[in-house]
Amino acid sequence: MSEVPCVRVRPFAGEETRQELAARDLLHPAYEITVEDDWLYIPVVAVPDGYTVVEHAVPERDQQTMPSDVLGFEPSYTRLGDIAILDEDDPDRAREIADALVASDLPLSSVVNRASKVKGELRVREWDVLVGETTTVHREYGTEFMLDIAEVYFSPRLATERHRVIEQVRPDEQFLDMFAGVGPFAVPAATRGAHAVGVDLNPVAIEFLKENAERNGVSDRVTAINADISEIDYTEWADRIVMNLPHSADEFLDTAVRLAGDECLLHYYDIQHEDDPFGPGERAIRGAASEYTVTVETRHTVRSYAPHELNVCLDVRLSR
């Protein structure tokens, strides 16, 4: 405990006062806000006008060492489980950031730097492994996914979009993910009571999908298939289909129509120019699903993909 200058206010005014002091950059970062005898004591770095300021004993704050404390600047990185993912062109800068991340108090055990774009039929990329390894467990909206980023494709930035779709899933519906990866759609769909089928060309991804179904207690409701989606025998089966292959999903629409039941909701992902982000996908779906009544329920922008390009999703109901 240390005697420091504190703004003293009643608790009901505490949050408003804290925000005002924070906006003026007056909060003391080294000490905790304290309540005593129905007064709130807010430690400050300087005496502000307009407040009652007293010397009061307050506890010191337990401060974490952050990467910026080591580097002198805030590094840019993405978290995936306990892996920090960098996108640095300069290998020396990447090494400096990796060392700082490991030296910090963040719960990280590995640091990698992107060494290539996503490429090939299996949509994987190369990595420079600076610290640790490429296998991790990622947690997302209560579901755990084990994966190896050197062997499978996975984007933590799509967590919100996946959750948007999964929130629509009903118990006992027949859910099909045409490009399932390690199961970020199929596994949480099963946790909501769906019967989920996940298909992927990548045998490593399918093994992780099986592991993740087991890890989350839904292996009895998940079928994992290592195959070309055009070859699976689930004709007219699906109540809901996810087509998250945005650069080329249109090439698989005939297969999606074959797999769709009499009533099916299709989540179709696309990347298009901002001038007409939904039109090409909608026209392609209507062309492929001529035997159905096609109703576009949602036109949804997922994120900006590149300058003037958008990653979008069409939620489309097919009714025979």
TrEMBL record:
Entry keywords, A to Z: Cytoplasm, Methyltransferase, S-adenosyl-L-methionine, Transferase, tRNA processing
Xref: InterPro entries: MeTrfase_TRM5/TYW2, SAM-dependent_MTases_sf, TRM5-TYW2-like_MTfase, TRM5/TYW2-like_N, Trm5a/b_N
GO BP: tRNA N1-guanine methylation
Q: Name one Pfam family in it.
A: TYW2_N_2
Annotated Gene Ontology MF terms? Answer: tRNA methyltransferase activity
Q: Which GO terms describe its cellular component?
A: cytoplasm
Q: tRNA processing as a keyword?
A: yes
Where does the record place the SAM-dependent methyltransferase TRM5/TYW2-type domain?
77-320
Source organism superkingdom: Archaea
What name does UniProt use for this protein? Class I SAM-dependent methyltransferase family protein
